[in-house]
Amino acid sequence: MERPKNRIILLFTIMIVTVNGLFASYRTEVYYAYVNNKMELWKSVIDRMDKVPAKSNELILELVNYQYGYIGYCLGYEKKSEAKTYLDKAQKNIDFLEKQKFRLATVNSYNAAFCGFRIGLNPLTVSYNGFRSVDFARKALELDSEDFFGYIQFGNIQFYMPKTFGGSKKEGLDYFLKAKELLEKKREENPEDWNYLAVLILVGQSYSYLGDYESSKATYEYILKLEPGFTYVRDELYPQLLMKMKES
Q1: pLDDT per residue as tens digits for the range 116-173
Q2: b/e per residue 54-92 (b: at least 16 CB within 10 A)
């Protein structure tokens, strides 16, 4: 006869496997959506995740990452109303995790990113949200110097901040490269991570902006080696760079 203790251990093991399976499924879908520019699929993933009852803190943080990516897409395509809707949802999730004192470095990194999104929604808030974004990003790296997301936010801040206020596109690139390095340490355990491809794009775009076209070209070619069907790089960024190199 099976002992109660053994049944509990078996049930706990099944729960862990199930949760890990859900994480992998969401991650795979978002990665596929990113590579193939299927943003309706991306949206469906975050909507489904949002409806999961009694989410763990880890799952909530995963959801916030996908919400973050979708908000950025909405702002890029001037879908400000939708961007605000998902920003409000993501902020509530981050506020909850902050109260739980869960992964506070990463929580601060997202707060830094959300301040940037609010500037995108309303440029008149740049002075207020700009300084808040810097403070959140700084605190994130003080709490955890290995938080890749904090380096991404500092990179964005440095890259887009006017030079007169201390911005530096070269320093921005250095932060992106640090984020890339940290993500590469985890590539084997998480090969389908859209964040890694996103950082590579930031690196490639930064090199291009700074006039280092060869490094930009090498970065885009590396991305296409990883994902030959990555539509954004294959059909837009890489051809645009080749044209720019031809005209220079």
Answers
A1: 999 999 999 999 999 999 999 999 999 999 999 999 999 999 988 877 777 789 999 9
A2: ebeeebbbbbbbbbbbbbbbbbeeebeebbbebbebbbe
Domain finish residue from 184, 204, 221: 184
pLDDT in tens, 71-123: 999 999 999 999 999 999 999 999 999 999 999 999 999 999 999 999 999 99
Answer for the pair 42, 34: CB distance below 8 angstroms, yes or no.
yes
Report if residue 177 sits inside a domain. Answer: yes
In a shared domain, residues 34 and 86: yes
The verdict on residue 4 lying in a domain is: no
130 and 92 in one domain? Answer: no
| Residues 94 and 66: beta-carbon distance below 8 Å | no
Cβ(208)–Cβ(241) below 8 Å = yes
Please report how the helices 80-99 and 57-76 are oriented relative to each other, as an axis angle in degrees rounded to 10.
160
Residue among 133, 143, 139, 144 at smallest CA distance from 167: 133
| Total number of domains in the chain | 3
Same domain, 94 and 18: yes
Instruction: List the domain range (segments joined by +) for residue 216.
Output: 195-248
